[in-house]
Design brief:
This protein is 21% helix and 15% strand. It is built from three helices and four strands.
Length: 123
């Protein structure tokens, strides 16, 4: 697929979102894990393929939310395989089949149109 094709409209938010320029600040795994929505003094963060998104404004990632399992983690594998299992909420996705990798890329695009990128996971 050529790079110049327009992105699919199905990933566009229903109401336009004004996003800040992406940041590439280093965020440790420990820092990410503390940003799981349980501490009101910290943002709620979710990483996809090592890129960290601030999902604080979406109640679905809060402790009582349906996607809280992803908060404070890099759940790339779970997103790629459409899983809400805690054991699938891990960053390893490179060994998945092409279909799952496409699903993960679509999730990345979905997040990148809705949430600010605040950094990159570093170990």
């Amino acid at each position: 697929m050529p790079d110049h094709e327009p992105e699919p409209k199905r990933f566009e938010p229903k109401t336009p979102v004004q996003l800040d320029p992406p940041k590439d600040d280093p965020i440790s795994i420990e820092e990410l894990s503390k940003s799981d929505g349980t501490d009101p003094n910290r943002p709620t963060l979710v990483a996809i393929k090592g890129t960290v998104f601030d999902v604080s404004k979406n109640a679905a990632y809060a402790p009582e939310g349906q996607y809280h399992v992803f908060a404070g983690k890099d759940p790339s594998r779970a997103l790629a395989t459409s899983s809400l299992k805690v054991e699938d909420c891990r960053p390893e996705w490179q060994d998945l089949d092409d279909k799952s990798k496409t699903v993960l890329d679509e999730w990345f695009l979905f997040f990148s149109k809705r949430y600010n990128i605040v950094g990159k996971v570093h170990s």
